[in-house]
Amino acid sequence: MIGFDLSDDHKLLERTVAEWAARDVAPRIRELDRAHTFDRSLLPQLAELGLLGVSIPEKYGGAGMDYLSLGIACESLEYVDTSLRVILSVHAGLNCLTLLSWGTEAQKQRYLVPQAQGKRIGTYALTEPAAGSDVRGIQSIAVASAGGFRISGEKMWISLADVADHFLIFAWTDLEKKRQRDPSGLSAFIVERSFPGFSSGTLTHKWGILAGNTGFLKLDNVEVPRENLLGEEGEGFKIAMFALDQGRFTVAAGATGLIRACRDASARYALERKAFGVEIAQHQLVKEMIARMESDYQASRLLWLRAGWLKNTGQRNTRETGLAKWFATVASERAAGDAVEIHGANGYSDEYPVGRFYRNCKGAVIYEGTREIHALMQADYVLGYRVDRPIRCELPPHHE
Ligand SMILES: Cc1cc2nc3c(=O)[nH]c(=O)nc-3n(C[C@H](O)[C@H](O)[C@H](O)COP(=O)(O)OP(=O)(O)OC[C@H]3O[C@@H](n4cnc5c(N)ncnc54)[C@H](O)[C@@H]3O)c2cc1C
């Protein structure tokens, strides 16, 4: 990226993903959403497009594209449906990029390569029934055993819980530090679905992202070999936060796509629908909502592009990525609410897509740091209470 221009490769990717999603997913998405069905046949198609390893180097089975490309893919996918973008967030963002930065060569060969090729799916499991924002409150424990660790615990609200083959799991390895809530007692593990004692299930009562899979995991004394410890023992908290820097980037770009979808659907409808003798687009208060969608879209896009550029150039971007995620998700909620408003009663039915946008946008305001957690983070940066310290493994820069 030079100046504000995307490269020809970026533009080609944007066009390719948008055309695929419009042709192969958009006509079916309402039915998938109505039926609460995750369509597994989308996975080989995403793999075929190179998206499941989009920013992973070719030597590890990926497409070798830069981090902006991951954002472009996310924005283009969420323009059609949030559930598509979530696949990239947890698999390509939270999981693959974390393995790329923190994995040993053996772990990369065993897990990252098949994931980047799309032959296996990975996800990220931090949240538990009693702890989301408060990571120090998780209860899962990993006790040392002859071959490695035995993990017990429960994870909740995990995207692709019933779909993924590999899971990034976080658990306490130091029980004294758990008692003291000292995060240096947490460790990260790569857990396979096939490990005895592991089970999962789907949450059937959620009301958004209905074409996506979200569920729970149960770990009942799951024996995990020592070579599946990711990073060093005690680095789990840093790894969890590092992963969120990548996941939040994908969520920011995706929410930007959702705002654009709200804007375009609203403009279309406002030009067709008539009230008081004119198309509703003529009414100034309707124009104001559309104008706000446009400014929110443009601002959100600039914020995630900046975060992606920082990633490409190897610069720390926790603050900028967090700001992009916070701004874009909150703006997407505003845009979706206004899109429903512009559609009137029709917005309240699923005959039009904006009702689905309205249900889907809220998840992203909550996951990967709630609106309040991000507000606190941004204020703390400004006030000097929060400073990013160097970490042992950064994302490898991607220079063209
Ligand atoms: C659709 C969906 C998919 C998800 N996918 C995943 C996944 O793949 N992997 C995963 O690990 N998790 C996932 N999550 C979980 C998500 O990350 C958590 O829900 C989120 O971190 C918030 O945690 P919580 O739900 O426990 O809310 P809580 O932490 O209990 O927060 C409840 C409320 O209290 C507020 N609050 C909490 N602490 C503070 C504070 N210090 N100051 C001010 N306000 C505060 C919050 O902002 C919020 O408004 C998913 C969630 C959803 C909805």
Structure characterization notes:
By secondary structure, this protein is α+β, with helices and mostly antiparallel strands. Helices cover 50% and strands 14% of the residues. It is built from 11 helices and 10 strands. It has helices at 8-34, 42-48, 67-78, 82-102, 105-116, 175-180, 236-272, 284-312, 318-342, 354-366, 371-383; strands spanning 122-125, 141-144, 148-159, 166-172, 186-192, 198-202, 214-225, 229-230, 274-275, 278-279. Helix 7 packs antiparallel against helix 8, helix 7 (236-272) runs parallel beside helix 9 (318-342) and helix 9 runs antiparallel to helix 10. The radius of gyration is 21 Å and the shape is globular. The relative contact order is 0.12. Flavin-adenine dinucleotide (FAD) binds next to strand 1, strand 3, helix 10 and helix 11.
Unreliable stretches, pLDDT < 50, 5 or more residues?
A: none
The major pleated sheet works out as: 4 strands, mixed
Radius of gyration: 21 Å
What is the 3D shape?
A: globular
Average pLDDT number: 97
Concise overview:
This protein has 400 residues and is of the alpha+beta class. Helices cover 50% and strands 14% of the residues.
Question: How do the strands and helices of this protein lay out in sequence?
Answer:
Layout: H1 8-34, H2 42-48, H3 67-78, H4 82-102, H5 105-116, E1 122-125, E2 141-144, E3 148-159, E4 166-172, H6 175-180, E5 186-192, E6 198-202, E7 214-225, E8 229-230, H7 236-272, E9 274-275, E10 278-279, H8 284-312, H9 318-342, H10 354-366, H11 371-383
Parallel strand pairs: 1-4
Antiparallel strand pairs: 2-3, 3-7, 4-5, 5-8, 6-7, 9-10
Helix pairs in contact: 1-3, 3-4, 3-7, 4-5, 4-7, 7-8, 7-9, 7-10, 8-9, 9-10, 9-11
Bound molecules: flavin-adenine dinucleotide.
Flavin-adenine dinucleotide binds next to strand 1, strand 3, helix 10 and helix 11.
